[in-house]
TrEMBL record:
Domain N-acetyltransferase: 1-142
GO molecular function, one term: acyltransferase activity, transferring groups other than amino-acyl groups
Record-annotated membrane-spanning stretches: none
Highest classification ranks of the organism: Bacteria, Pseudomonadati, Pseudomonadota, Gammaproteobacteria, Thiotrichales
Domain of life, per lineage: Bacteria
Keywords on record: Transferase
Alphabetical list of CDD domains matching this protein: NAT_SF
Protein's name according to its UniProt entry: N-acetyltransferase
Stored SUPFAM superfamilies: Acyl-CoA N-acyltransferases (Nat)
Length: 156
């Protein structure tokens, strides 16, 4: 296990390994997202993956890093592995790794409780950095029902 990864036991038979994807794991993480019809990460972003038994990718997300904030994108966990805390562990890992940043995400109302349970609170468009405000308003004008949220809790 490398310094930038953690293993977490989620059942007696399986261990969950979370890491920032690099090189071959970056390609595998993007393949996982593409397979599940999710937007893939660009090379200028950070991609995080969750693997069972250090082999099978079961969750991933990526974020854009700006000088003063991170924009969390495309958190996805395979349906058969949902409600096990994998998405929460992925996000907490990345937030701990990138301390002293503000974190934002856009999500649908159905995901509001998930993000709120991690420490995100809903924010108005006017409370977003200008580039995110412009994107949110454009998405909403195009009919997407999205909520902007900001991470407001500290993780120890």
């Amino acid at each position: 296990m490398t310094q930038d990864s953690r293993s977490i036991s989620i059942s007696p038979l399986n261990s969950l390994h979370i890491q920032q994807a690099k090189d071959s794991t970056f390609r595998l993480g993007n393949h996982f997202l593409k397979k599940h019809k999710q937007m893939q990460a660009g090379r200028e972003t950070r991609l995080y993956i969750a693997q069972l038994n250090d082999t099978k990718i079961v969750g991933a997300f990526w974020m854009e890093i700006q000088p003063t904030y991170c924009w969390i994108r495309n958190v996805f966990v395979e349906s058969c592995h949902r409600h096990l805390g994998i998405g929460t562990k992925l996000l907490r890992y990345a937030i701990k790794e990138n301390k002293n940043m503000s974190y934002y995400c856009f999500n649908t109302p159905s995901l509001h409780p998930f993000y709120q349970s991690i420490g995100f609170d809903e924010v108005l468009a006017d409370e977003l950095p200008n580039s995110l405000k412009t994107r949110l308003l454009r998405y909403q004008a195009n009919g997407k029902n999205l909520i902007a949220m900001r991470f407001t809790t500290s993780l120890s």
